[in-house]
Amino acid sequence: MSESPGPVREPLLRMTLREDQDVFVVRQRGREVAAALGMEHQDQVRVATALSEIGRHAIGATVTFTAEVSGRPRLVIVVEADGIGISPPEGTAAAGRLMDEVHVERDRISLMRRLPAQVGQERLATAREELAASRPTTALDELSVQNRQLVSALEEVQAHRDELLTLNAELEETNRGVMALYTQLSEELEQTNQGVVALYAELEERSAQLREANEAKSRFLANVSHELRAPVTAIIGLTRLLLDPRSEPLTADQTHQLDLVQGSAADLLARVNDLLDLAKAESNRIEPNWAPVDLSAVFGQLRGTLRPLAKPGVRFEIADPAEPVELVTDEVLLTQILRNLLTNALKFTEAGSVAMGALVLDGRLHIAVADTGIGIPFAEQRRIFEEFHQVRGAHQAGGTGLGLPYARRLATLLGGGLSMVSEPGEGSTFTLDLPLRPAPEDDQDLPHVRAVLVVDDEAAARQVLREHLTGIAEHVHEAADARSALAIAARERPSLIFLDLRMPGGDGGELIAALAGVPELSGVPVVVVTGADVGHVPGAAAVLAKPALTRRMIADVVARVTA
Ligand code: ADP
What we know:
Blueprint: E1 13-16, H1 22-36, H2 41-55, E2 62-68, E3 74-80, H3 92-98, E4 101-104, E5 108-114, H4 121-133, H5 139-243, H6 252-282, E6 291-293, H7 295-306, E7 314-318, E8 327-329, H8 331-347, E9 352-361, E10 364-371, H9 378-381, H10 403-413, E11 417-423, E12 427-435, E13 449-455, H11 459-469, E14 473-479, H12 482-492, E15 496-500, E16 502-503, E17 506-507, H13 508-517, E18 526-530, E19 542-545, H14 551-561
Parallel strand pairs: 7-9, 13-14, 13-15, 15-18, 18-19
Antiparallel strand pairs: 1-2, 2-3, 3-5, 4-5, 6-8, 9-10, 10-12, 11-12, 16-17
Helix pairs in contact: 1-2, 2-3, 5-6, 6-10, 7-8, 8-10, 11-14, 12-13
The chain binds adenosine-5'-diphosphate.
Adenosine-5'-diphosphate binds at residues 344-345, 348, 371, 373-376, 384, 389-391, 395, 399-404, 428.
Catalytic activity: ATP + protein L-histidine = ADP + protein N-phospho-L-histidine
Pfam family, one: HisKA
Coiled coil: 140-216
């Protein structure tokens, strides 16, 4: 065995394995080199073990220890067999697991292991000195060192095992804790859930009660108003009779008193009618009659009828929309809403102006009624849309407190809304917003037919049907009289015909008979649409009342007669 520590850049140590015992020495030297280079205890054992694994099969080989400190510092150990060959290079597998890199060539094995990053030239020099000073011990010494290492490794393993046991126990405890917490939380959740379910059940019950109460109220309103209407109408009729110039003459006093009776009765009738309207709207018994509406005409009519209500000195202005508005809504209901708003504005405005104007914004029609009247106290603003609510005090000016709730109800029925801003003492603005046309219904359950013929002498009536039939009929053909109707029917073979009964130059009934006489057309169902109260029409598949037509009714009748 020979070894020699070299100068800088030279190997740290070189030794030759001459006999079996040198395996212990190379093991020991390996550990020493590792220790001198600042490797941790575990790494020292790795290097030593790898060397003894290789050394056992490389008797005769030279082992060179070098430290590379330029770049990432590492320990390089080269085992060279010098012609004797390390065959087979047993032990390299074990060494491979212990070292970072192991390269096997024919008679040369290189082992590499990372060194602590701070190892530099200085450390290298000290290591060199330390190694030069230390002498290899005997195989027996190395064996006892190895034993000590084994014992300490065993102790370490035992310590790890104990630690693991403690950890396991702790983990189990934690698990039990988590489980307990989970159970507690689940119970609490279940209790909360039960509470929520009970709360909802109660809520539902309350809602049902409220609904019932509301329905009962509407029924009551409707019944009472009906009951009241007959006697009030009788009073008005009788008073009119008494006041008739052809009746027995009355004294001036009597005439005056009867005038008062008549005035009061008319007031009473108006309020009873209000009640009846509201009850009807609330029970959804009002079906809007959707049709194209001429807004200027509606405005004109309101201008004419309401102007007399403006107090002296109050300007009353209704401005036509700047551009023509194409509007499909219920004209009667729209007029009612606007009349209501304008009447209120005129009633509560002593000076200044009451003005109405319209504007289309984002596909909706906004109609504003603005006044410079007494305004509405802030505290009351939220409540004026409630039924029977009237602002107290100087405000009180007759009425029932039903006008605004009714107007809002109608606005909703038309797919719109009614809102208000008011500044007490300055005035109020009520704004009605409406869709330009009714929202399309859910078209999924609508019947579908190929072609429909609409026969009516009035273009507006044909237009209404055309609107209702969109989405139901693929083609809508129109005829303005019976003769052209027959020709179009023969040409287009419609799936069904909508027919107005009374047309100038030919009765609808005659057309039904004529159709029945043509073999190809005799099977086409005819739906009579009429303003007259006719009941049954011979030859017609169905009869619909013109004023109250709705899209739903059209859809239903199409589905029924073409089934
Ligand atoms: P009424 O039939 O009593 O007029 P409404 O529902 O139409 O019932 O109105 C409720 C209350 O709202 C009215 O009594 C009035 O105090 C107040 N109000 C309505 N419109 C106006 C307005 N333009 N200016 C001031 N107050 C108004």
